[in-house]
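Key result, reporting period 2: structure in, sequence out.
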């Protein structure tokens, strides 16, 4: 009987140990769920606040647009949108401008735009845009060297 009692005692110790492990897992899981619930509550509050702010900003923008319309202001959509491709550095090895053929009209037009500018800027600005390899840098150098 003592052997059976000892075996039963060992089994009970192991069962109690396993039960204690399972209970601690359940309690840990409940703590994790509580922390997750708290985090989600904070996120929900932040999103609601952001939604209110966005609605307020949209209302302000609509108000500005309505006021602009009252003053007769019109929206202008630019002819082109410039999208930078990256930090590309290009070089133009222009030693003698006589080596460049077919750009005389472009140079004279650019120089004319810069000299005869009617803008109220101290220095007029001329944008030269296009795909790589079209000669934008060469054109700019020709304009700068124009007499």
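The corresponding designed sequence is given below.
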């Amino acid at each position: 009987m003592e052997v059976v009692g000892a075996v039963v005692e060992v089994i009970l110790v192991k069962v109690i140990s396993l039960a204690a492990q399972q209970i601690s897992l359940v309690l840990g899981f409940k703590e994790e769920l509580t922390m997750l619930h708290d985090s989600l509550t904070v996120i929900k509050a932040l999103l609601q606040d952001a939604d209110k702010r966005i609605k307020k900003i949209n209302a302000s923008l609509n108000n500005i647009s309505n006021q602009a319309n009252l003053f007769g202001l019109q929206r202008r959509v630019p002819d082109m949108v410039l999208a930078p491709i990256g930090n590309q550095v290009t070089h133009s090895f222009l030693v003698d401008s006589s080596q460049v053929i077919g750009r005389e009209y472009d140079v004279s037009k650019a120089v004319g735009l810069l000299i005869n500018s009617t803008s109220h800027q101290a220095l007029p600005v001329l944008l030269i845009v296009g795909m790589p390899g079209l000669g934008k840098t060469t054109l700019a150098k020709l304009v700068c060297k124009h007499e």
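Helices lie at 2-70, 104-115, 136-145. The first helix runs from residue 2 to 70. This case is discussed further under Risks and Mitigation.
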